[in-house]
Amino acid sequence: MTDFILYGAYGYTGRLITRYAKDHGLKPLLAGRNEQKLQELSSESGYPYRVVDLIETEKLEELLKEAKVVLHAAGPFIKTAKPMIEACLATGTHYLDITGEIQVFSLANRYDAAAEHANLMLMPGVGFDVVPTDCMAAYLKEKMPDATELKLAFAWKGGGVSHGTAKTMLMGMGHPGAVRKDGKITPVKAGYKTKDIPFTADNSMQAITIPWGDVFTAYHTTRIPNIETYFAAPLQQQRFMKLSNYLGPILRLPLVKNYFAKKIDARPAGPSDRRRENARAYVYGEVSNAAGQTTAARLETIEGYTLTAITALMITKRVLNGDWKSGYRTPAGVYGADFILEVESSSREDI
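RE: above sequence
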């Protein structure tokens, strides 16, 4: 007997979720479109599997009828979220995913009324995208209820990037960034602002604006109308982001995208266990109000992919236990600002 469906189970993050499921007392039904990879993972883990392609609507709906929750881990979600969400609405299945893409949060929100009617929850972004930053946004809103501006930033020490994350970044290459101004998502130049961020008491790093999912989600959690999101990217990457404003048409060419995709495929699938264990992640948040008052906080937690597996499973278990709200929802909007502190080795401090 399984507890939930893990779709895209054989990807880098899907495999981590599979490994950690037992620690949370959960048994996933592994699913995806590649039978060979599913067989291998099933043999390794002992969990059963089903082969279903997202374009096979009837088979997908039959699969979803076997569980109350699907944890969707097969990106890029800009391509895969819609058929899964629509199948969830047809079967009354709660939808969770690990996206960080603004377009996917926007998509899920457009199904809010349908999800309310079907009495199910749509909660994309239950991993590092966007749990720690969403919790930070909610925390700062509690500290400054009249905040009008929010800045969120993140960095990591050690670790690395998975194939899936790299390919999602590749899809955005050559496209503009995004911020929220006066409540509306607004296009801006890629990397249009930089800011020195005190991620720890001893170390500040230069971070650059990126179109992180919180541009969408933090507004729904806090209703703060002006939001910017930053990442402490290496300086070489920051220079490339700024240069991409002039090379956009070239970078969007299929030939160029395919070239970089092959480069990604030639790399390891993601950081090794040792690199993950030795890595840390950092989140900084800052709010200000119309009077010019400012308050800030920072968070230190475990490596991003490990955190994604753990928070995704924590939320899956809560939903299975009846702790959910119907409609489109954000992690901190349902589970509160302190949810991230339930993750072992996480700490938050006011600045």
